[in-house]
Amino acid sequence: MLRGAHAISLDSKGRLAIPTRFRDWLRDESDGQLVCTIDLCDPCLLLYPLGEWEEVERRLRSLSSMNPAERRVQRLLLGHASECELDNNGRLLLPAPLRLHAGLDKKVMLVGQLNKFELWDEARWLQRVQDDIKDFAQDDGASSERLRDFSL
Predict the structure, then answer these.
(1) How confident is the model at residue 141 (pLDDT cuts 50, 70, 90)?
(2) pTM for this prediction
(3) 83: helix, coil or strand?
(4) To 5 degrees, how large is the angle CA 94–CA 130–CA 120?
(5) Residues 80/6, Cβ–Cβ less than 8 Å
(6) What's the mean pLDDT in 12-38?
(7) Greatest CA span in the chain, whole angstroms?
(8) Domains observed in the chain
(9) SS3 helix, strand, coil % of the chain, rounded to 5?
């Protein structure tokens, strides 16, 4: 289970060090193999352990290449998908086009989302959190049937 928000740094080559608490799990779960792609809704990247990505690919394969909206999703997610591998020091090299898409520079947030990570520019992440808190307080979750009964 991938959870929590972790401040990390990109080095000059575009590598980021995965926090130690996730390294062994990722090596056991996916032999250190991950896939990174763009997020379709936010200026961030999605980083999947290989097994989770294979499930995404299975779902993408079921979409129609004849339907323009479905083909657009396939093109964006698969066209930007890049295989990444943990090195011996627990680092991943993020391709330059993906870093550019998400505006990643030096300060990055690695945010666990159950089956994947989101990678955000730190300033954009902090703004997103503030916006999400404000938006949630305004609609109180009423816009989603599933959130109406959700409590902690």
Answers:
(1) low
(2) 0.92
(3) strand
(4) 0
(5) no
(6) 96
(7) 47
(8) 5-121 (3.40.1550.20)
(9) 45, 25, 30
